[in-house]
Amino acid sequence: MSPSSLKLLPLAALLCGCGPESSGPTGRFGLDVVMSSAVANEVHALQVTVLTRGSSRSCTELQRTCLNSQVKREDMVALQDARGNEGRALRFTVDLAAMQNGGSQSLDVDVPVGRDYALVIEAMAVGSPSRFLGSSCNYLKVVNSGDNAPLVAAPLVLTEQSCDPSIAP
Amino acid sequence: MHRHDLPSRLGVLLLVMGLAAPPGLAHNLFPPPALSQLGPASPEITRAREQIDNGEFEEARRTLQAGLDAPDVTDDQLVELYRLLGLTALYLGDENQAREAYEKLLQARPDYELPRTAPPKLRALYARIKEDIRSRRVRPVTLDVSPVPNSRGGQPLEVSATIQELALGARARMFYRRAGDQAYNSVDFVKDRNDKEQFRAVVPAYDVPAESEPYEVEYYFEVADAAQRRLAGRGDSFQPLMFQVLPQQQTAAADGEVSSGRPWYKSPWLWVAVGAVAIGGTAGVVALSSSEDRGRVPITIRVDPSQP
Asked: pLDDT tens-digit profile of B160-190?
């Protein structure tokens, strides 16, 4: 096969839909979280945590202050990020330049297959110790590796509190 | 013809055949996505798929409209109905309706992406619609409401919610029924006079009377547009949430205490056992349907400059 035809193969496979199923986020539910400008001006990192017994929790309450002061460690599910890092809470450094230019940042969190979770994203400001800027709490009815229920994410607005949201992995 | 041109011309020929082929053949070239195979079943969805497969697009369009008008459409069904309606409209050359369908789909599930197996023409239209929505800053309805805690009977039950971007003509309601009843009652969320995003619904006292034994109430929240299409919600009629109505004298500490006079079918232990079997069965299905024990949750973070 000539080099030119080899170049065409991926294109043809893509257009015909003959290739393997995407291993990316396509086809699964996701959270599209909107962050207010006030949070974006100060945020340094985002910390993602998933709690068990989601339906028994009040997201309104959880969003008021640091999660670590409201729940026990055993309530947090062990998570993994795309690079294989594991922990009860995963921390992602924010690419502020990209986001403030109208772009977005994608985070992938692997959650054990299960039901009745609450997913909390906490915005952290740089400093020692870190400062809590606000959080977005969302109920996850079910997580499996197929298609999941749709989800409306809570916006991340400034709810600055003098607490350190850090959760040890 | 140069020899090295042959494979590329064959590729182009295949592509052109795929785009120009009659619907039945096009269906074979572009097999239905996994979503439609695993998606939620409803008589209208099943019938519409058959009609699309047979090239009966006008009939499919009517079937899908009937499906959208049906009561108790779940979010998953709504997404699939709009996806099929968009596809059907495109086959009929009605790009406006296809656009409208995909806008509704994105309203119901803002993160929805077409499967990669979708026809390129469909994917191009979908990408344009998403871009338009972004540039017009059309935002989906968001509903933030906490689960109802166990409550005392014989008094009105008040539920507060935060609803943003509630469209004109849309209604937010709480549906509830005593566990075991067939039909749901509903109460509307009413806007707070001082805060346009704060809403309040009140379940009247006579619907949650105090009794000598505690009992369960099933409920769900739903925001629907003027045509009763679900825009957002928590729980649904098939998978309601639940709270317990406590007797007047019973303290909160006595939650869950069981009377010995309760009929056998109301014993929570029976339902714990049934639930364990059901969860075990579901977990088995999940485990069988996937070789992974983890599911990936993609999270997209954006900055909204309109929010200070």
From this structure: 999 887 766 678 999 999 988 888 889 999 8
Which pLDDT band holds residue B64 (cuts at 50, 70, 90)? very high
Q: Which domain holds residue B206?
A: 142-247
Q: Does residue A159 sit within a domain?
A: no
The tokens describing B189, both together, are 């969320």
Residue B130 — φ and ψ, nearest 5°? -60, -40
pLDDT in tens, B2-28: 444 444 444 444 444 444 444 444 443
**B117–A33 C-beta distance less than 8 A:** no
ipTM: 0.73
B190 closest CA partner among B229, B160, B145: B160
Final residue of a domain: which of B108, B136, B164? Answer: B136
Average pLDDT, chain B: 71
Of the residues B4, B19, B303, B306, the best mutation for testing chain A's interface (the one with the most A CB atoms within 10 Å of its CB) is: B303
The tokens for B53 are 């497969």
CA distance B17 to B22: 9
The residue in chain B having the minimum alpha-carbon distance to the alpha carbon of residue A139 is B234
Pairing relationship of beta strands A104-112 and B142-145 according to DSSP bridges: unpaired
Do B224 and B146 lie in one domain? The reply is: yes
User: Of the candidates A86, A105, A85, A89, which has an alpha carbon nearest to the alpha carbon of residue A43?
Assistant: A105
CB contact under 8 A, A104 and B297: no
What is the side-by-side order of every strand in the sheet holding A86-87? A31-36, B294-304, A104-112, A79-81, A86-87
Q: What's the length of chain B?
A: 308
Residues B123 and B106 in one domain: yes
Cβ distance B147 to A58 less than 8 Å, yes or no, reads yes
Sign for the pseudo-dihedral over CA of A71, A74, A80, A84: positive
* Residue A13 domain-assigned (yes or no): no
Do residues B161 and B185 share a domain?
A: yes
Q: Could you say which of B11, B113, B141 has the minimum Cβ distance to residue A26? A: B113
Identify the three-state secondary structure at position B99: helix
Residue where the block lists tokens 């499967």: B115
Contact A158, A36 (CB under 8 A): yes
Q: How many domains does chain A have?
A: 1
B120 and B156 in a common domain: no
